Each structure stands twice: as C-alpha cells, then as structure tokens.
Amino acid sequence: MTPLRPSDFPGATAFVPAEATWAQLTHASQECRGCDLYLEATQTVFGEGPVPARLALVGEQPGDREDVAGEPFVGPAGRLLDRALEKAGTAREEVYVTNVVKHFRFTRPRGKQRIHKSPARWQVAACEPWLVAELSRVQPHVVVVLGATAGQAVFGPAFRVGTSRGTVVPWPQDRLPLADAPVCIPTAHPSSVLRSRQRDEDLAALVSDLQVAVAALDA
User: Fold this and answer.
1) pLDDT tens across 82-95, in order?
2) d(CA 112, CA 189)
3) Total structural domains in the chain?
4) For residue 146, what is the domain's CATH number?
C-alpha cells in the first residue's frame, strides 16, 4: 500500500461551514478529514468555554485523555493550567480554551500506551481554518498562546517562546486575519511546567504571564 502524503489531504477549509451557528461549527469539526490525524485519533477535540469570551487560551493539540474525553485540557496539564488561572485571578469557566490542532497525534513505542508526538507543520497548517473560525466567533480581547507549536502556528516558524513570553504583542493580522484583532501574550505550555525540574519556579512564571493577560483585559 502506498504511504499517504500531505498532498493526499485537502486541509480543513472544505470542512469549515460558512455562516454556521456555534453548534453547527462544532458538529462539522467532528467530520473533518483535512489531514491524516483523524485516521487514528478517537475524535475531534474542539475548543470549550463561553462564546463570546474576553480571554482565550490556545495550546498545541489534545493529549491522550483529551482524545478519549473529547474535551480540551482535562489531563494533568489542564489541571495545572486551572491552578495557574486561579492564581492569576481568573477561572477556567471564564475563558475559552482550544488547540491549534484538533486531533491527537501519538506513537506507540511500548505496546498499547499512546505517547504524545508533536504535530507536523503541515498538519498544523491544515487545521488553521478551524482556529480562525473559532476565534472569529469567540471574539476574544486577549489570546494567550501556550508553547512553541501554538506560537509558530500563530506567528510563524521564527517564533520562540523565550523571546516574547509575558509581553503584550499584536495579533498577526497578515497571517490570520480576524475582524476584531485581539492582543496576544505568549507563554510556556503547562505540560512543559509538568516536565520541569524547577516546577515551582516555572509555575510561578506561567502564573505571572497569565496575570499579564488578565491585566490586558482592562487595558
């Protein structure tokens, strides 16, 4: 059997309905075949939270638990994020959370256990129309970009977390045009805090960045 190639997939544009209600948009996302990740993932994991929402958080992709549950940020990284949001002065229920890629990409190096594998650049690009459709309806004032993959999806391949984290930067309208362009605060992904050998310090840095985002809501 000939291996599938990126050119065998159309990208998400053909699957994103125009002028759809929120319910229609989320339903349509379950039928997306824009890249190859749907072939092994359990389901599409769309964003979750109030619509509209003043604050949106954008991560990389769903993990194993999110893939099974069909909800974003419900695993260990999500629980850490909830704690960080509370320390920063807001609550998970008040923000919209999503990922730049809607299906779980993984490997199985040890039997049945599924190990996270970062999405390829073409897979991120294929999923881009979903992010634009989400944020166009959520209409956030501030977007927190969590980690390198999300940052490169939003700002381009030259993005590095360390050079801009915790600062307020403009939304890149030239790359991802939105009617009401928000401002952005890049920061680390909560999963990197979980892996850190200096977890307390890195959690404090994440909380500090989220405090910048909360303050920017009233700027």
Assistant:
1) 999 999 999 999 99
2) 26
3) 1
4) 3.40.470.10
